[in-house]
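Worked example (supplementary).
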Amino acid sequence: MGRKKYGIAVPRVRDDGLQVEDSTRAQRIFWVVERCGWALFAALLLLAMFGLTGSGGPFARAVVQDGSGRVDYPAIARWHTSDDLRVTFAGNATTHTLEVSQAFVDAFEIGSMQPRPATSTTLADGMRFTFEAGPDAGVSASVFVTPLNVGWMDYAVRIDGGASQEVRTLVLP
Amino acid sequence: MESVFRGAAIYVIMLIVVRLSGRRTLSQLTAFDFVLLLIVAETTQQALLGDDFSISNAVILILTLFGIDILLSHVKRHLPLAGIVIDGTTTVLISKGEPDWRAMARARVQIGDVLEAARIQHGLARLDQIDFAVLEASGNISIIPAGAGK
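After joint prediction of all chains, the assembly is encoded as:
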């Protein structure tokens, strides 16, 4: 292939008389890459179907629990996309508390909560929310959050003063 | 800063996906492909803008996208291999009247597509009236009739 001024290349003349730059070898390599790409697309869609890219699916959420209750939290979340922590308190107390670590407060923007907590208190490391329950009424609460950053978010939750549960959420861009 | 990263990320991802989807996807604007293009445009809009609908964000994104386009055009000019990777290369489907079946299968081109191009471009009726058929990087098929250019 000859080159003229200004770096403009002149395609070669093939044996069959056609003047075209067809780069057969590069095209064959690309076809292999293309098919690998399709396999990758299919794999990503499968991951999405199983919840490994967030927004629903069997593996999008995880649970930690102890005698005080359970926390259903997003294992995979998406940046700037609303998600929620679902807390179920055990026992028949009329007051329940949910504590989240400062890492949680730094990682997520806390939106609304259902039901609305009776009190919100800042702690040395995080925040405490107090929910009231009627007599013999179970309490479940949802805390709606929006991830502020991308990556692995490690934080802790504690229900009714029980053991602190270390949890991790992967926030995808 | 986030706007630039968003714009660059979406541009690169779209470039990769469109390239890996094959050239026929680019040239065959059937009704399905048209709908696909519209939906993809809507899908990327939110990812580009996020929750920032300011004029400043729009300007930065537009400049980012055009800037990448200009940068890549310079890269392609100085690195021919980059041009092949980014834009693809031509593929000769029929040479001197003989179809390259493997190339056609790999490029997912049917004989009907070649005949359609032959009819549209030159009014040719049969395969044996075609000397060369070239799948261009754009996804279009160029037809050189038998006896042309002699």
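Two points are worth noting when inspecting this output. Helices of chain B lie at 2-20, 23-27, 31-49, 55-78, 80-87, 101-106, 111-122. The CA atoms of residues 88 and 137 of chain B lie 5 Å apart.
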